Amino acid sequence: MEILGHLADGMLASFEPLNLMMIFIGVTVGLFIGAMPGLGSVNGVAILLPATFLVPPATAMIFLAAIYYGAMYGGAISSITLGIPGASTAVATTFDGRPLALKGKADQALVTAAVASFVGGSVANILFTAFAPPLAAVALSFGPPEIFALMLLAFATFVGLGGDDIPKTILSICLGLVLAAVGFDEISGAPRLVFFEITGFLHGINFLVLAIGVYGIGEMLWTINATRGEATMTDTEITPRRVLIAVKESFTAWRGMAIGSSLGFFVGILPAAGATPGSLMAYGLTKMTAKNPENFGKGALNGVSAPEAANNAASAGSMLPMITLGIPGSPTTAVLLGGMVIWGLQPGPRLFTDQPDFVWPLIGSLYVSNLMAMVVNLAFIPLFLWMLRMPFTILAPIIFVLSVVGGYAATQDMHDIWLMLIFGIGAFMLRLLDYPLAPAVLAIVLGPQTEETLRQSLLISSGDPMIFLNRPIAGPITVIAVILIVLPAINLIRRKLKARSAA
Amino acid sequence: MRRAEIITAGVLALFSIYIMWKSGQPAWEGIAWFDNIGYVSGEGPGTGFWPFWLAGIMLASCIWIMVNWWRRSSPPSRSEEQFLDAHGIEMLIKVGGGITALIGMVHFVGMYGSIPIFMFYYLHFLGRHRLTTTLAVSLGAPVVTFFFFDVAMRIVLPKGYLEPLFIPLYAIFL
User: Fold this and answer.
1) CA A356 to mean position of chain CA atoms
2) End-to-end CA distance of chain B, in Å?
3) Residue B102 and residue A401: Cβ atoms within 8 Å?
4) Distances (CA, A) of B122 to A426, B64, B97
């Protein structure tokens, strides 16, 4: 019960004028940074960290956490309006957000994303407040075999995303995994797959290069070809009344929000995994357990609410190991951890007892940031929709320029921009032949961690693959993952055999 | 589209074989080729294991796609329509060529030179907008980009031969 007392004190502290102003600025800045393809919360937090030395540490932390939250809301904006995932955490939002925008329902998609983000963040905040120490203990017991099992589960949940053509889906997934292996091998340090001995490949292929190439350049080329260059984007009117109707409508997607919040929070508290695998898994699981899975990918609201709730829940969850154990849960929290050390704080279990004036205002501010981020997001929706109403011949070159500059901002290497162009044109041509490219993007996002944990686990077990089944947590997860991978294939073969015997 | 399907499957198969060959490449002098593909007992997979066998699965998938093409069981292998009609090819050359020029010019005049030129080309020639709109957007884009990326986010974009023109701007803003 004293937790509630501390929480109330914390929330009161976050309502102080300076803190409130920092929350508002942080959330707005985060929103715009998250909406820009190529930039994510890491960029915003890293750039603005030095600016926070002027204010007390608690206020600084509140500001940076607000940016983190705002960026999670913002990632959905470019996913839905432009079709380019703003960050790896927003990839799953493009699957159903973009079709909704093309159908003229961009406002519904944006509002659903905002509401789902709010629900995900709130659920995660409550779980954080109540269960911080025991959850930290659980998170510590996850080692490489468990993380690999989780990755396997993530791949299993989106085996169904490829559509009907199985060999092309398998090719797509394997291509993504191979592209993820380019560069220096994590375990042995040897250079791998340096195509044609071009040195630019030594730093690997950043996921954003493939994602912006496929979704930015490839998607635009496809739209120009499919609509004969005469495309007009959606034509929606926006009034406060429509926003309220859309808010009510978004609650019909409660299943996605429920799955996304719980799965996202849980994946977020694991030190290695974060918002990205969390949002992908939430999407896959929601699709698998839906009544009409074939609607996913064509504009199902649950397909927007699930990943959005998950990535906000995961970002709240990733703060948990940072504060309780001193282990960063994601790249952004790694920067935040650095900030805490600079301010002279010592993250770890004693933070709650030694520095309650820091921890509880931070936790209280998470609730306030969450609410304010949703309000700011909803208020800016007319601006985002105005962007969509621009004539396509103005929007297209802006998207191309944004792809090029955003891609450069991610890796600061022109080699990657040329690679992005090649991926874009290649993706356009493959799409004309019905090759699904979403699995490739997902594979390149999760590939490095999958291979690394696989090899680490086998090193731990001295080459014995039974380690994935022997450990108490990894075992069940692996079994479930294998069943989920094999089951659709068996179903498909059974269906085709039945169809053939009936014909 | 039948021809495009089989050509693409063939190209992807060749690419898979290339990856399989490349993943056997030794990391340093003195190690034999294809030494790293196997499973080192007591340690787990070697460095080449992951890409080699994945590329092997890719090759198998390409062969499956080719079999499907021969059996005419996938929609693209059945359709007789053209892969890209005349309008599609024209658009691909104009737009794709434009983006290629956009990226190519960055090496010479930097981002802030190539962006206005590309926007002008696209808006005026492909979009056939009025000159006022074209100039407003073409000149506005690099200014907004400069203030957002160079000044605010401190991500320095390549400037090419126009670098000397930016030195006074750096002095004021950065």
Assistant:
1) 31
2) 54
3) yes
4) 22, 41, 11
Per-window interface: A 10-39 vs B, CB < 8 A: 33, 36, 39
In B62-121, the residues whose Cβ lies within 8 Å of chain A are: 62, 64-65, 68, 74-76, 83-84, 87-88, 91-92, 95-96, 98-100, 102-103, 106-107, 111, 115, 118-119
Spatial neighbors of A22 by CB under 8 A, at least 6 apart, are A55, A59, A62, A63, A66
Residue among A24, A21, A28, A71 nearest A46 (CA)? A71
With CA atoms as reference, report the closest residue to A28 among A386, A406, A377, A378: A377
- Report helix angle A144-157 to A275-288, nearest 10: 40
CB proximity list for A212: less than 8 A, separation 6 or greater: A37, A38, A84, A403, A406, A407, A420
Q: What is the pTM of this model?
A: 0.81
Mapped onto helix, strand or coil, the DSSP state of residue A76 is: helix
* Of residues B155 and A177, more confidently modeled: A177
Q: % helix / strand / coil in chain A, to the nearest 5?
A: 80, 0, 20
Chain A touched by B53 (CB under 8 Å): no
Angstroms from A12 CA to nearest CA on chain B: 32
Res A306: pLDDT: 92
* Nearest-neighbour CA in chain A from B168: distance (Å): 23
Alpha-carbon gap, residue A228 to A134, rounded angstroms: 58
Taking residues A338-358, what's their average pLDDT? 78
What's the CA gap between A345 and B31, in Å, rounded?
49
